[in-house]
Design a protein that fits this description.
- The chain has 191 residues and is mainly beta.
- The chain folds into two domains: 70 residues, no CATH class; 120 residues, Immunoglobulin-like.
- Helices cover 7% and strands 47% of the residues.
- It is built from two helices and twelve strands.
- The longest helix is centred in the C-terminal third of the chain and has 9 residues.
Length: 191
């Protein structure tokens, strides 16, 4: 996987000695609209004010990088930061689960608002995870309905194991239903 150097836009306001490239996630998996070699690169940055952030940019071999933005705590109480952006008419939730949530990350699920509770499965998307990062792609034809979130959940291998041992357990290491739901459209980025 192609890992691009940290671009100048991702270094703005950062202590030059405190920028650490964390790796890259493929965005093209499962998306016919995106080039096969398009990656979202991530870096941990400590600002000159002492604040730690994870910043993201798009890269593709032989092309200019495009800065997307910084992950932020968009869902109250969630043990992860999010970045919500649109690319080629598709939308993406990219996040990093905080180290404060113990265990080995298995999955992150987001659920949009759905009037019919029997349709909960169609209203839920589970992210692809790597290390403590996750990507949840939203197809273009569903993008409009995915700006308002009603629930978020995180599972670890340990919480799933506990669920298998106790039938009453949910399997989630953390979950929260938002009432009222959280509108993330104002946070949508267009790199």
């Amino acid at each position: 996987m192609f890992k691009a150097p940290v671009p100048p836009e991702a270094r703005v306001g950062a202590d030059p000695r405190a920028v650490l490239a964390l790796g890259a996630l493929s965005l093209s998996d499962g998306s016919p609209r995106l080039p096969r070699d398009l990656n979202l690169n991530l870096a941990r940055v400590v600002t000159t004010a002492g604040v730690t952030e994870v910043r993201a940019w798009l890269s593709q071999p032989g092309r200019d990088v495009r800065y997307v933005g910084a992950l932020a705590p968009l869902l109250p109480g969630a043990p992860f930061d999010l970045l919500y952006f649109e690319l080629a008419a598709e939308r993406y939730y990219v996040g990093r689960v905080h180290d404060s949530l113990p265990g080995n990350l298995d999955s992150v699920a987001l659920q949009r608002v759905e009037a019919d509770p029997r349709q909960w499965m169609a209203a839920t998307r589970v992210g692809t995870t790597r290390d403590r990062f996750f990507v949840i792609p939203i197809p273009a034809e569903q993008a409009a309905s995915w700006s308002v979130l009603a629930e978020a959940r995180v599972a670890t291998r340990e919480s799933l194991r506990a669920n298998a041992q106790r039938s009453a357990a949910s399997g989630w290491a953390w979950s929260n239903a938002y009432d009222p739901p959280i509108d993330l459209f104002p946070h949508l980025k267009h790199p």
